[in-house]
Amino acid sequence: MRPRIFVTQPVANTALVRLRKHADVTVNPQAGRIIAKKTLVAAVRRCDLLFSLLHDRIDRDVIAANPRLRVIASQSITPDNIDVAEATRRNIPVTVVPAIVAEATADIAFGLMLMAARRMVEGDRLVHKGRFPGSQSSYLLGAAVYGKTIGLIGGGGRIGSAVARRARGFDMRVLYWGPRRKSDSFERQFQMTYAPLDRLLQESDFVSVHSPLKPETHHQIGSRELALMKPTAFLINTARGAVVDEAALTRALKQGRIAGAGLDVFEHEPKVAPGLLAMSNVVATPHLGSAVAEVREQMANIVVDNILALLAGKPPPNCINPEVLAACRAH
Predict the structure, then answer these.
(1) 199 pLDDT exceeds 60?
(2) Are the CB atoms for 306 and 318 separated by under 8 Å?
(3) Which residues, at least 6 apart from 150, have a Cβ–Cβ distance to it below 8 Å?
(4) pLDDT value at position 62?
(5) Is 129 helix (H, G, I), strand (E, B) or coil?
(6) What is the C-alpha to C-alpha distance for residues 228 and 59, in angstroms, rounded to an integer?
(7) Catalytic residue among 240, 246, 257, 267
(8) Would you call 269 a catalytic residue per the annotation?
(9) What is residue 15's predicted lDDT score, i.e. its pLDDT?
(10) Do 4-99+292-330 and 102-284 agree at the fold level?
(11) Interaxial angle between packed helices 102-118 and 120-128, expressed in degrees from 0 to 180 and rounded to the nearest 10
């Protein structure tokens, strides 16, 4: 019998065409919301391989729904919502995709910065309501981006350096901080200046967060850090929501301690704090960092590469618990 694969949301057609040559593929047709747990559990019971996306919560109940589940092939870069320990205990390989989203995520970071500073979302809504204050009205005065200072927290990585390249086109001064300072050649190449975190927060007009989520970076930006920022500064987060203390951010925005925020990620996503959404100086997007057609197609096809390798009895190229592969081959 051909293996059965369940895909939790529609993905690139080129990836599905490849899969259907080797397996019976069922795709949840709903792209507008995360699949409900009850629906996911029912689907897992009827499949041999699971193709999941970042926000699908693959917990112990989902994994236990099918003792014969052969793989959890995720389209995410990090398995944040997968119980990897439980999958490993059951000898189920978990695969991910490599970090190929830097340029797309840098676009979103810069877009959020522009939208928040220039009040573009407010302007768009105004025009759609039939209002037009006039091209020289002071009604939607915003903040300049060109020539300002941007501070990149965790800025020595792929996404931070990609944002730095974009900032050069806006003649921005670029500060960065990370747990380890980069080489002189790196700093020259990207025209970045290393600064201690407190100084970066104090001097930046835009603070852009790029730290990976680890125990030591949970709530890396909290009340103390926000209090160090300029009252005219904006916070941009395209990393992971829990790097920023969302309650502290909400308080800082309500009290006018910072000017605004551009957020693509949230601490408890898909839930977003109502307090943030109530403020006009917050631009919020639903985790769109990798939402570029070419990038998503590449990601989906990497998931297929992982699945086809497993079906062929080969080690999947992006397996995060490779210790289970020997048991899988024996099975």
Answers:
(1) yes
(2) yes
(3) 113, 163, 164, 167, 172, 173, 174, 175, 204, 205, 206, 207, 208
(4) 97
(5) coil
(6) 39
(7) 240
(8) yes
(9) 98
(10) yes
(11) 70
Measured over the CA atoms of residue 3, residue 7, residue 12 and residue 13, the dihedral's sign is positive
Euclidean distance between CA atoms 228 and 239, whole angstroms: 20
Q: Which two tokens stand for residue 302?
A: 């990497």
User: Are the C-beta atoms of residues 234 and 143 closer than 8 Å to each other?
Assistant: yes
Question: 3-state class of 82 per DSSP?
Answer: strand
282: helix, strand or coil: strand
Q: What is the CATH number of domain 102-284?
A: 3.40.50.720
Residues 6+ positions from 39 with CB-CB distance below 8 Å: 28
Taking the C-alpha atoms of residue 127 and residue 134, their distance in angstroms, rounded to an integer, is: 11
Cα separation, 126 vs 138, in Å, equals 14
4-99+292-330: CATH superfamily: NAD(P)-binding Rossmann-like Domain (3.40.50.720)
CA 115-116-121 angle, 5° bins: 55
Domain boundaries, the chain: 4-99+292-330, 102-284
Q: Is residue 123 pLDDT above 90, yes or no?
A: yes
Q: Which residue has the tokens 């829990």?
A: 242
User: What's the mean per-residue pLDDT of the chain?
Assistant: 95
Residue 124's Cα: distance from chain center in Å?
25
Q: How confident is the model at residue 134 (pLDDT cuts 50, 70, 90)?
A: confident
Which entry of 86, 103, 187, 269 is annotated as an active-site residue?
269
Q: 180 catalytic, yes or no?
A: no
